[in-house]
Every structure is written in structure tokens, then in C-alpha cells.
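User: I'm putting together a small comparison set for a docking exercise, and I want a reference complex before I start. The sequence is below, and the ligand is manganese (II) ion. Could you produce the 3D structure with the ligand included, as C-alpha cells?
Assistant: Of course. I'll restate your input first, then give the C-alpha cells for the complex.
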Amino acid sequence: MKITFLGHATLLIETENASLIVDPFISGNSLAAHIDINALKVDYILITHGHQDHVLDVETIAKNNPKALLISNYEIVEWFGAKGIKGHPLNHGGKFKFDFGILKYVNAVHSSVLPDGSYGGNPGGFVLTTSSKCVYIAGDTALTLDMKLIPETCSPLDLAIFPIGDNFTMGYEDASIASDFVKCDKVLGCHYDTFPPIKLDKAKAQSYFQSKGKELVLLNIGSSISI
Ligand code: NI
Ligand code: MN
């Protein structure tokens, strides 16, 4: 599985047979100006919650990829459905087997409203299980005890993707506790640097993780890791 960081909380995940984009926010991110949104080829669009910094480019990507299926909670799928974008709704605790693997929608502690003020349901994250790997995409969230349910209910994780920028989500110190809760010492950080309140001292965050015996992967925008 190849995971490309496209800035903020946007990820392009390539499994053996599908490309998934998560929380596309590219055109509004000056740090991601070198990413060509129109070059993105995706089969699925995954949305954790309704905030603008997670849904801004859904319509552009859906228009460029007319066969792509949107996967999110019920309320968000309905909202985009009214714009002609087809989707598959999940709700918390539910999982479904897609052609790329199993996706489970899990709890997040955050808020969620769509850009026009519509109710976006409750925010969530995803656990993605393919035939070979398991990844937890936390979405915007605080540290929460619910994370302890993930190793109880899902396959052992190969990677946890956590917001680490603080202010709107947990910061890196809490993310290191979250990695204990989910029993995964390899963390990919996101949701930092995009706006002034979430500017991150990256070296400090990485050495903090190192001091706990953990790895914090921070990718340049446009760079990838393979797991
Ligand atoms: Ni948010
Ligand atoms: Mn956000």
C-alpha cells in the first residue's frame, strides 16, 4: 500500500486495486500549490467529516473522476448526493467490504458541519483493512478512550494516521498516547502547518516520539510512504 501526503489531512492511498483520496483540501492550501488536482485519478473519495478543510475539493475530484464513489457518514453522503455525487453511507461502528478491502467508520471527538451550515452528522475516522495491511485514519479528533476499541475490534495496525497540529485536534503529545491506545508505534502525522494556529515544530514532535520509542513519519507534500 502506498500513501501519498497531499497536505493538511489529504491523503492518496493506493491499494493493490484501487486509489482512494481522503479529505481532499488542495486548492485552498497554499502549501500544496504544486499539487495538480486535475491529475488525480481516484476510484473512491473518503470523507471523515464535513468541515471545509476536508471537503473543499470533493466536487472537483468527483467531476474529474465520474466513476468515483464517495464514502462517508450518512449525512455527508446525502449532502453530496443532492449535488449528483454518488456515495456509500456508513455510520459509526459499521463496516462494509468494498473491492479494495473493508472500511469501518469509527468514532472521533470533534465537530462536523458542512460548508453551507448543513448538519454533517457526527465526525469519524476510518479503519482500512486490505488483504495485506491495516491502517487507521483518525480524522480530526481529540485523544479519546474509544481508540482503545480499535485493537479490540480490528486487525493489528501497520500504520496510524493522526492529526498532530494541536488547537483544532490533538497535538503530538496526545497523539503519542493515542498510538499506545491503538497499539501502533508507527504514526503518520497530518493536520499541521496549514494555518498559523497549527504550525508545528516538526523536529521537536519527531524527537518526542523517538523518546517514547515510537516513529513519527512526516512527509513533504507530494511525498509517499509504502507500507
Ligand atoms: Ni475538522
Ligand atoms: Mn480539520
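The helical segments are 52-55, 58-64, 74-81, 149-153, 172-181, 202-211. The mean pLDDT is 98.
User: Thanks, that's exactly what I needed.
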